[in-house]
Structures are given as structure tokens and as C-alpha cells.
User: Fold these one by one.
Assistant:
Number 1:
Amino acid sequence: VGTCPTCGHTLSAEYDLETARRELRPDAFSRRAPDLWRYFELLPVRDPRHALTLGEGGSPILDLGERAEAPGVRLLVKDDGRLPTGTFKARGMAVAVSRARELGVRSFFVPTAGNAGAALAAYAARARASARVYVPEDTPAAILESCATFGADVVTVPGTIADAGRVAREREKGSGRFDVSTLREPYRVEGKKTMGFEIFEQTRAADVGLPDAVVYPAGGGTGLVGMYKAFRELERLGWVERMPRLIAVQPEGCAPIVRALDAGAPRAEPWADARTIAPGLRVPSPFASERILEAVRESGGCGVTVPDRALVPAMRTLARDFGLAVGPEGAAPFAALPELARRGRIRPAERVLLYNTGSGIGYSPSELERALGG
Ligand SMILES: Cc1ncc(COP(=O)(O)O)c(C=O)c1O
């Protein structure tokens, strides 16, 4: 099992950071290969021979300068659209599949909005293991095809990822396949931590310090939980004094985390009738929402919603003005800028990093617009 057998909560990988503090220096990493295994000492795989790689990690941080959408704010984009399989999901699956394989696992399943399935399929192929993905039946065809091309079994389920999860867990009971669902095993988050490590290392190398805030498109929440864990570990190593504020962006049609943040609630309640053109953000009841809320609150961040109709114009602006191809999820942080600036959640003279979680290649903005109109 991947969760605590007593209370059912998520498990968390812990490290001997006291020893690491004495023995590790931040510049140790800069001499290593650019993939995420450069942070090996802070990742859960024990034997480097079990670290599977497709060259994930090391995505660039691009400077967009200042924009009228958030006057006076210096905007940066970290572009994970270039990772294997086109999304940040490669980070979590590289580490989860490697560690599971080290522990003897040879077959996997995952309920997914799509991108995590493609990433699982690719790393399972790399591991010569088998993968089955359970996806909502309206998942974009390009993502389904990508899962199948990497050799995964693809099972489509009516409804949302919540329904895919229910069906998957029912059908897989006793199958022997390992469940790599978001936050139901501890190691995908460890891979996502490398987003925070890279932001630290790259801004340190440029001698500019951490950004004031990271604006992130939140679905199941592993990205926020992973970055928060990364910055906490960097604090304990004595390398970081104050972490960036973590800001969760969700679409108006599916915003359980933002609603819980605004209400001061201890956990997110399921969102009825979840709708959005951003498949990765259609997560009506994120598992372990307490940990997502903790990441946002403890970092001094907040939540904000964006209407779907703002996503395609943001995709177009990032493409036309900067040559950046982002998917509808990755467009959400840019679309949220005017509201964040209006509320004073990001301020002039601050440096704000927008996280692009996935490539726009494979998405047609005009088709998304038609989907909105219908
Ligand atoms: C492209 C993309 N962005 C963002 C998310 C949300 O991920 P999380 O909140 O789990 O980090 C997903 C999840 O499917 C995704 O595919």
C-alpha cells in the first residue's frame, strides 16, 4: 500500500537533513548532469542504478519582463512544457517508477486526467514494466494516443478523474498492480520537489534570489505540495531563509482548493459538476487537500480563480508575444495576473514566477474556443 495502513493518510519520505546540512553544499549540484537526479541525496532512490531517466528536469526560467497585466511586476516563466511527454508529470513519474522498481514493483496503474498517464506510460516503458491508465472518456485524443503509444493499457471511464479513480481502485483490487495515484503513494511528490530545487538553484546561479511568489495551476495538488516540501527542506539545510508565496490558480468551474482557502476551511469539499477546458485542472475532490492548503497557507500564499474564457487569450498572448507554447493549464497563471495585481497579492517591484506545467503543442486554441462556445 502507498498510504498509512492505520489512518489512510499520505506517507511522506523523510531524509537525514542534519547530516546533509553538514556534508552537502548547494554548489555540489552544479557540476552534475542537468536532469533531476542531480539532487540524488534528497530523493528516495537508494541505488543510482535504479534511477530511470529520459532527461527530465533542468527546464529553463525565462524572463518576460514587465507587462500591463501586472504593472511593475517582473514576470518569469519556468517552462516544463519541454520535459519528456510534454508536462511536469515526468518529474513525479521518473522518481515514483524508479523507486517502486527498486522495491520490486513491475506493474502499475493510475487514474489520471491524462498527462500523468502519459508520463507513467513512458517511464514504465523505460523500466520495462507494464502500465494501465484510467482516464475520463473526454480526455483529449492526443493524450490518450500518447499513453497507448508508450504501450500502456488505456481504460476510459465516463465522468471525471474522481470517477476514474473509483473504477480503477475497484477493478484493481487484488490485481497486484501498484497504485501511483496522486498523493496515494509518497514518491511522485519527491519528484515534484525538484521544481522547487531548480527554482532555488537557477535563481541562485543568476544571483537574483528566490522569486517573491510562484503562481501555479492547481489540480490534484502534487506540484504545490512538492514545491512546499522542497523549500522546507532547503530551509532546514540552511540554504533558504524565506520561501516564495505559493499561489494556487484554479478555473472558476472547478475550484475546490480556492474555495477552501477563501473559507478558511481545514479541507476541500468535493466540487459538484466540475467543468473546465483545462483537463489537468478538472480535479473535483483532491486527495489530501489538507496538505495542499497547508502549502499555500504556510508559505503566505493565496488562491485565485480564472474563468475558462481567459485561458485561450492567455495561450495566444504567451505564444505571440514570447514564442511560448503553453497548454490551457499553463495559461492559467498568466490569466490570473490582473486579478492578483488588483487584489495586491502580487505587487510592483516583486519578481513573480509563473509555472508552465505543460506544452501547448497538441492543443488547438481555436478548437478550445469552439469547446467554450458550445
Ligand atoms: C498540465 C497540467 N498542469 C497542472 C496539473 C495539476 O497538477 P497538480 O495540481 O497535481 O500539481 C495537471 C494535472 O493533471 C496537468 O496535467
Number 2:
Amino acid sequence: MPAGGPTQSDRSVRVQVPGHEYEVRIGTGLLSRIGETLGASSSVRPGSRVFLAHDANLPQAVASAAGRSLETSGFRVSAAALRADESDKTLSALQPILVELAKSRQERHEPLIALGGGLVGDLAGFAGAIYRRGIPVIQCPTTLLSMVDASVGGKTGANLAIEPGDSGLLKNVIGAFHQPILVLADVSTLISLPDRQYRSGIAECIKHGLLSADFGDPGLADWTAAQLDSIVARDATILAELIQRNIAVKAAVVRGDEREVSPTGGRALLNLGHTFGHAIETLTGLTLPGFPAGPLLHGEAVALGLIAATACSAASGSCPPSLLAQVQSQIAKTGLSTKVQGLPPDAQLLSRMGHDKKVEGGSLRLILPAGSGRSKVARDPSPAHIQSGWAAIRA
Ligand SMILES: NC(=O)c1ccc[n+]([C@@H]2O[C@H](COP(=O)([O-])OP(=O)(O)OC[C@H]3O[C@@H](n4cnc5c(N)ncnc54)[C@H](O)[C@@H]3O)[C@@H](O)[C@H]2O)c1
């Protein structure tokens, strides 16, 4: 095995997009070997400056281990701690990162490492996309959601505040496609992830199972359903397989439609559950039964969105009603809520769906599960069917 190469227990997925290919490595202890890994990479020059943008909530030992490994391998490290707060994921949070990059005299060929969950990955990745018109980015996801989804595929971005308050925040409407040069998913970082955050990530895995048949893994939904107890218990072996299979599905989707332009679905299929989910994610005044009042986490909103999309699909006859019961039961088994209290009236929710970026030329494009691991695009579904979706999650 070459120094800096994968160990026998590491897993790997290749992501290919036009003109660019990169590795996603999945394993334990990857961050404490990151210096060796970059040292062995042909895309990073020896002795480069490396900018480590890390989530301020990570245990200190995680960022320190990565920093130490980089320094031991001869890299010159500058670091910045970022607050992972959705209301701070705005243009104003970009400025200090860009200033730090400039102050550390980071050059165009020198990489930025985004170490954290999807929020830090999106924000630091966006800074990497625009600083000097794009520097190499290495994504090191530390949440389940960012390992199986956000770190792969090159979407970076921030929210746009169009009105004061959380409900005036438009999710991810600004950003750039900027593929990383490498993704290191160090499964051992998940140990410190709070339970609620961890379970949120499982929602994206359930989503992938609802569309994976067209992307090389028709058995993913059944396997995930059968392994849910082990997944919830964070069994390391099952987790490594879960992450690898989910990344492989995402990679297959992205390979066919990097820029989300396919008229037949492609990357837009990954928005399954998100149009419903985004409409409520930044709403205040919602409560999940059994949880303290407060904003929903992204994965919690996606879980509810998956149920709403499946109910909408079942109401329109696009999937068997039994699929709704299956999705509800899987989500309940992970400990995620299947209902939410305090939803505003349907008319307001419909209008919020119109703000979502999945609106094209004034028409609403929803992704709906079709059964047997497949999902499809529905253009302008009837308001009555959409209302069935909201009714399914209204507590
Ligand atoms: N780019 C994409 O393709 C894509 C896809 C999905 C979601 N996203 C974005 O990702 C964000 C959500 O990401 P997320 O669910 O990973 O949450 P997050 O990044 O907001 O992190 C959740 C919380 O966990 C903390 N945390 C992260 N890793 C930790 C660890 N190992 N131990 C302890 N605490 C840890 C964070 O500080 C934060 O408080 C949203 O902003 C969403 O828009 C992007």
C-alpha cells in the first residue's frame, strides 16, 4: 500500500463529472492521516498552504488531529472556526472566511479543507469556489447527512435573507457548483454527533432508497429498512456500508446530470422531499411531538417532506398507498417525527413552495416516489394532491 493511500478497511467511491474525477474515501481515522493522504495526492503540491475551515462545535481533538497531521507532512496550516448556524449561513458569514484566506496569502493552487457538517461544507465550499475564482476544496464531512449527501456533488452555497427573521431566509438560493478534489468521510467523527443530528441524516438515506433503482442499487431501500436498528445504534461496519452505498447512488445521479439540467429528472430527483421540506424548514412556531419547540433540522424537514411527497404521490395514483405506510414506518423507526404541530394553512404552505428553487418558468416541479425504488418528476401537481401531502404530516 502506498503511503497516504487507503488502508485495507477503507472503502472508496469514484465520482466522475465532465472534466473532473475524484475519490470519496470512507473509513475510520482518516483525519489523523490527512497529511499523508494529501502528501500522496498529485493535486496538492508539497509544502502548500492549507486552509482548514472547521466547525466550531467539533470536539477540539478532531480539528487538532487534522492540523497536526498536515503540519507533520510539511503543509503550512491556517485555520478558522465557523459557527454552524442556519441563520448565519448567509453572505455576511462568507466575508470573514475570504478575509482570512487573503490574510493567510492562500494562492490559487492551494487547498481549502471544509471540516464539518453540510453547513460548513456549503459555506466554506462556496468561499473556496469564489476566492481567486476557485481554489481546490477538500470536503471532510462530520455528520451523517453530509457524508451521504452534502459533501459529494459539488453544490456549495448560502441562504439569502430577504426579510428579517428565520422565515425570511431563502435556503441555498445563492451558490456555485464547485466539485471537491477529494472527500474524506471519517466515520469516527460521528461518535460525538448529537443523536437528533445523527437521526436527521438517516432521512437522506431513506430518500436515496426511494430512487436508487435507477442508479445502480435497487436493493438499497430494503437493505436500509432491514438494518435500521443497527444504523440507529451507529454500528460501525453497517455505517461504512450505508455511507458507501449512499455515496455511490449520489455519485451515479451526479455523473448523469452534474448541473441539474436533465428534463427527465437526473439530479433534481435528489430533491425528493425537499420542496415540502424547504417550505417548513425555516418556519418558526413548529413543534415536533416529543421535542422542545424550535426550528426543525434540515433532515427532520426532509423526513416530513418524504412523507408529504409520498402521500401526494399516493393521492395522485402515482404510487401504491402501501408505500406511504412503509415510508412512515421507516421514519418512525429511526426516531424521526412523522407529524409536525403548528403548520400554517395550506395556502401559505403552497405559496412557500413557490419560493423553492425547484420552480421553473412559474410551474412547480415536484419529485414524487413512484414505488420499487424509483421516483419521477411531476409538473404542476394538483393543489388537492399537494394538500394530501400536507395533511399527512399535520399533527
Ligand atoms: N451541498 C449539498 O448538496 C447539500 C445537501 C444537503 C444539505 N446541505 C446543507 O447542509 C446543511 C445541513 O447539514 P448537516 O445536517 O450536516 O448539519 P450542520 O452542518 O448544520 O451540523 C449540525 C450540527 O452538528 C454539529 N456537528 C457537526 N458535526 C459534528 C460532530 N461530528 N460532532 C458534534 N457536533 C457536530 C454542527 O456544529 C451543528 O451544530 C444545510 O445547510 C443544508 O442546506 C447541502
